[in-house]
């Protein structure tokens, strides 16, 4: 902020400041703070109706919600006039905005536990410590373009109406832990200096919250914060010291489009539920301000992660967009739960990427035009179920698995390629229907799409046992069980060059029916032997 273009006023003659610091002398610090708070709160309680007084009594101590009688009010006015050295001055009118705008606060000031109606701290400069812990802001509050050269404390503060911190600068960070915002709040274009921590741990935002184009120079902590309304972090810049959203809940929409993460970022155990789906335009924000209908999406389009990006065990119930995102370091989606679509179109995953244990309930990730790191882990992933899907949804899954298969082929990751190929065939089987898709079903039953060695071996074993039973039935008491088993085994393994003369050990020439059966057995056995070879090749193939 350019100080040459600013002219701050000292608060000594500001009536609101005088009222807030009425008892500054002749009292110990702790007692003085309590007296100032009670004086302020009771003065404002005098102008509240019974319902408002009852509501704040749940937050503010009961003895501070009792209105002043005339004698007490006169005593307060006398102290007020003596501090101003003006016997004609009147106490400020609480029906008007509490105006602290443009003031320079050099000394420490305690507003902890204060009641504020409509209040304006716009363009203030705070050089002394300021404490709003457990304060109650009942009406609109403005800190627009204010500058804090100390870290203000807003722990457990409650904001009931619109709140504005637009263009505010925090040189030493701030602390909003466990604060509650019941109405829309704007932190748009705020600036937090380097090494200054910004803390929102456990905070609750019940309506829109806007951090658009804000810059965080130190650690940013939103651990266990709850965003009941939509949140926008559009084009934010997060410092090399990292950002932590672990355990946060985004109930409607989270917009991180074009944000830049210079350090590690953690979204572990974050919950992204979906309320209402919509199709926002490409350039407009995903939610209109003050709207009651929102999108259940998380948007990270165009974001850049320079450090580790951790979405470990995060739940995404709405659509998730990572289009054109750049992950320059590790991306961790371990055990993340995607209940709707997830789109990585044209993204660059330049570091190791972990999808281990992920669950994709609606569709696999869309990776058209994306660049994957060779160390991309797909182990133990739970893929979408095909039961109950419409034809067009199955076709979309087929295309998605086909793209993943091609991507794995480019990276020479044969086992992952085979896995996605099998998923693609499963979808094509459903597309074709039971009759036309029957060959694909056979391929699945006999060898799990070329992935299994055990399955064709078991089928070959069953085929040999079937041949043994047929031979025993055909020749009854004319052949022993071991010779019948040997004859069936020889017929099954005839392609390996086992002596055909052993077949002549049968007691009598085979009938036409028996010859037909033995021919079919031999053909099926040859196919199963081929599938065993295919499974061995796929299992131990090096490409």
Summarize the structure.
This protein is α/β, with parallel strands linked by helices. It has ten helices and 44 strands. An eleven-stranded parallel beta sheet has the order 1-5-9-12-16-20-24-28-32-36-40, with no helix packed on it. An eleven-stranded parallel beta sheet has the order 2-6-10-13-17-21-25-29-33-37-41, with no helix packed on it.
Overview of this protein structure:
Pfam families: Pentapeptide_3. Keywords: Plasmid. InterPro entries: 5peptide_repeat. The chain is of the alpha/beta class. Among the domains are: 3-84, no CATH class; 187-278; 454-540. 30% of the residues lie in helices and 16% in strands. It has ten helices and 44 strands. An eleven-stranded parallel β-sheet has the order 1-5-9-12-16-20-24-28-32-36-40, with no helix packed on it. The two termini are 60 Å apart.
